[in-house]
Amino acid sequence: MRASWACGLVLYAGCAAAFAVDPFAQPLTAAVVRTQMAQLMPEMDRAQVLRGRFTQRKFLVELPRPLVSTGEFILLRGQGLHWRTLQPLESEVLLTVSPTSSPSATAVFLALFAIDIDALAERFDFFGDVAGPAWQLGLRPRDAGLATRVEKALLVGRSSVERIVLYEAGGDRTDIALEAVAQRVDQLTDGERKRLAP
Amino acid sequence: MASASALLPSASPVWLRFWMWTAAMALLIALYALRIAPTLQIQTDLLAMLPVQDARPTAAAEQRYADALSRRLLFLVGAADTVGAVDAATAFAETLRTSGALGNVSLELPAATSQAGLFVEHRHALLADADRRLLQQHATDTVADRALAQAYGLPAQPRALPLTQDPFNFLGAFLAQQADGLGHLRPVHGVLMVERDGMHHVLITAEVVRAPFALDTEDRVVPAIDRAARQARSAGARVLSSGVLLHATEAAHRARGEIVRVGVLSMLGVALMIGLTFRSVRPLLLSAAVLGTGALAAVSTCQLLFGHITLLALVFGSSLIGVAVDYSTHFLADQFRDPAGWTPQQALHHVGPGIAIGMGCAVLGYLSLGLTPLPGLRQMAVFAASGLIVACGSVLCWYPVLAPAARRSTAPPLRWAARLDRGLQRLHGRGARIAAGVIGLVVVLGLVRLDFADDVGLLHTAAPRLVQDDDRIRDLLGSAPDSRFFVVQARTAEDVLQREERLRALLDPLVANGSLEGYRAVSRTLPSELRQREDHALLAATIHTAGGAGPRLMSALGFPPALIATRQAEFERGGMPLLPGLWLADAASAPYRDLWLGEVGPASASIVSLSGIRDPAALQALAARVPGATFVDRVGAISDLLTRYRRLALLLLGAAYVLIGGVMLLRYRPGVALRLLAAPIGAALITLAALGALGALNLFHVLGLFVVLGLGVDYAVFLREGAASRAPTVLAISLSTVGTALSYGLLSFSSSPFIRAIGLTLLLGVALTWVLALLLQPPPPLTRAPSA
Which residue of A has its CA nearest to B183? Predict the structure, then answer.
């Protein structure tokens, strides 16, 4: 019991530090976000692949403790995301864009991970602080359909995205910490490329 | 009548008939003006010419579905970005709504795909097909592992409820299954949207509120759509529209244009011909009066008998001008027999019987068309017969009094006719007989190889612009319903749903192996009560047992014991099945409501619509395995029907010749009667062979032959009866041929394949009948001698 209290306190402190300024207080235009992000993450356009490890915490309403999982991921921008959970159980998910159209949840997810400002601008309003090297980008869905599922989302990063927080409409929250390195497409193995860009 | 008798110069029957006919026509005009014109309804649905009474048990259900489909309109409004597309679509829908011409204009997404309120309430009795199968196989570990992986995985899977309320995501899977029928459409910004090549299209549906195939409805709806589309396009958006009504309107406009063109041009041609021949205004006016009374009678009779008049009958009728004017020209041409002493009363005695017999035979020919069970043909028969009888009556009753006295000169056309006749008569002889033999042989060969193709495409060729939109929409949506579908019928709604479920169990493997792209069925969103009870029992036995998969998963995810107990208690209390009444009343049923026919007669029925059929035979075979399920192929059925009626019409055509032959035997010797019939029969056979060489024949070519019969019998009878005045008779039937060829020649340029078929048949058939009649009814030796 004490351990969980301590855990909660540490987490609370962490959150408090990260959200010292409410990122949703300051609206931003898509144009500002686009230019700023291009400056803050100059290699974003060149590096088409993001590869690394993640730690995901799901805070679910009614549950006292978050569901914590860790694993590896590979993102091929505009194509797909391979999400491999290693702990506490092994499972994998592959999100890909189909040529005609894709389920909206997949498309939103890929856009969030890739920080595809153009795609995000269609469905979200932007907020936050993208002036400094450490940036926070808040997103609120513009249409009621998406809002029934996602209340808001938060992206935090420096030269690449480090944290993605998704607030679901039902009160659940998913907080994903990423440790990633950017790579070129030719650094993917054949198997990886085939899986991500079918 | 008192005033009439005062005017009688002598109490001759001619004058009596004149006044009685005039009174009758005045009554007809009054009837038309007071009763017919205010209620005149022009039916533009070409399929309405097909039989109404359909004995098949699914007919009523099919009809209801077809009616609903014919009321539906579908639009895609597109723009380069989603927000622009939604704005354009909203404005478009608003314009349609305010026009008042359309109802149920829906743009916003029905609740089912965005909120799941109704289904949340009943979730403890609802399972996706795949989950049901897993639980039936007791594969609870698979279900639990999947739930754990989802819980720890990315939150990208669509969830209907938060994880703690539905840890297995059973409801999410059930709702995802419903999206199968959506094709490429995705809910975005609260509307249904499809994206392709950087363009985002929003789906808008609407319904026609009034009778879909009435001209006045079409006149209101189409301008409203055009206005909305113009506005959207001027704002830079793209608009694609599709709907049965658009096709019907297009076809009706084309047909109306053709009626006017054919009517005006053949009127002008006939007027020119009469003017040239008789060099007087009065024959023109008289012909117009004959045509006018005939047309009024035809329209009035049809409206009185059928309650409406089909466009097809009007198109067909507009070409009857050529036939009706025959009686007029034949009567007037009699003056050339004896230009010096001719009076109209003489003509009555001289050509009256011929005209009456000709008319009788033509009417018999047309009426035999009416023996077919096709309402459209019956109407055409009634239209033609009543029009011709009255036109003939006008000629026989009015002309003896009103026709102008003869001019004392031989008109040049008469000399041309005589010269033509002499030319044709020289064809008699050995060479001509050999030629006739060769032609006969070719015709027989042609007839043996005759090919028939009856396709629904004959009734309707869509405008390329509409087809292009339709194809584009089908391509974008990816799940356009096929014209073939299943009807599922049973005594109660519950039985219908159960039968649907049995059908779906057979359809799913076809979808899996690619024989079918997909289907939509009500039971996907509203399972039968039986299945819901089974599913609840299944969940109770496999998931929600004490220490079962449910409590185990929940404790693995860290649910406090109290919460696990709450969830278990909720399950126990739930399980109330979702019933059709509740479902229908909820907005969630909107995307499927078109498939639910409810009570049709003594039974309940629903439709299972199909898309991307690649193996129709497999589907046909399925229906036999599910009681109450019928695979319906309306297009195929219509083609079959056309084939059946084409066969029937051919038989009737033969019967009509026999019938007319019988009538002729009352007046002529057998040899003479045979000779009289030889011209129209020969012409019909040659026409068939010639058309057969051009391509496959269909019902409408046969219908054309009916008209050829009606006209062709006239020619021979006129020539026979008018043998004493050969040249004027030749002139009369030549004029008639020119007039008919003119109007039918015009029809053979029609954009509708079936009208083209009738036109071409008539053009060939009448010309051939004319030649054959002249050849087979040579002038009697007495008249030939002086002209030779």
Answer: A101
